[in-house]
Amino acid sequence: MRMSKVTQYSAINLIEEAHVDAVRWNELPSNEKLANIVLTLQRHGMRAIQAADGREALDILRTLIPSGAEVMDGASVTLFEIGYREFVDSGQSAWQNLRAAVHAENDPAKRHELRRKSMTAQYFVSGVNAITESGELVACDTAGSRVGAWHFAADHLILVCGINKIVRTLDDAFRRVREYSYPLENLRANRKYGVPSQLGKWVILAYEEVQSRVTVILIRERLGY
């Protein structure tokens, strides 16, 4: 199975140095299991859409977010790999790019306040570290800017995820983050920012009561961490 777009921080370029078990934590589910997960997520109040590859996932994203909408995203290798960041940064989206506004602010205190307020964006786009067969979505972040909008703040939450993130149980999801996602992200953070990552803020999304608030795009590729 091919990857949409290999970047310098794609897992394939970091696995050897990070010393992670890429086989154990990147198994792909059967079609039957994937179909069951879609139904489970739907029963948990979330819309689940399958995409054949990253290009289709980006097309789906473009249809889900209307022109002029406020959009914020959490840092995600998957979003880079499907071309989302390139699309948004190019100005083609016609969305209100809140991330650009945050980065344009030079005052640290004002930038922090803009980042905090961006959690209430009309649309928040993020990656996922693990999805269980029983329908829990798990992610972890150092400071919380990638997961702060998940619970309630954002009007609409769009989660983009390769099907290599699917695991059997919640315990497996925690193990995947600790044994696979974190070592890779820690290596990426050290290379890109010169600082380590941390297992700081965890989030579990198991049910959504607001209809159409959460959409999960399941991509039939091995993507992200």
Q: Quickly name the level 1 CATH class.
A: Alpha Beta
Going across the biggest sheet, name each strand in turn: 1-10-7-4-2-3
Write down the secondary-structure element order.
Answer: HHEHEHHEHHEEEEEHEE
Helix content: 25-40%
> What percent of residues are in strands?
15-25%
- Treating each run of at least 4 consecutive H or I residues as one helix, how many helices? 8
Structural class of the helices, strands and pairings?
alpha/beta
Domain count, please report it: 1
Radius of gyration from the alpha-carbon trace, in angstroms:
16 Å
Could you say which overall geometry the principal axes of the C-alpha atoms support?
A: globular
Task: State the end-to-end distance.
Answer: 16 Å
Question: Major beta sheet, specifics?
Answer: 6 strands, parallel
Average pLDDT score: 96
Classify the fold: give the CATH topology.
Rossmann fold
| Uncertain runs | none
Q: What name goes with the CATH superfamily? A: NagB/RpiA/CoA transferase-like
CATH architecture level-2 label: 3-Layer(aba) Sandwich
Beta strand count: 10
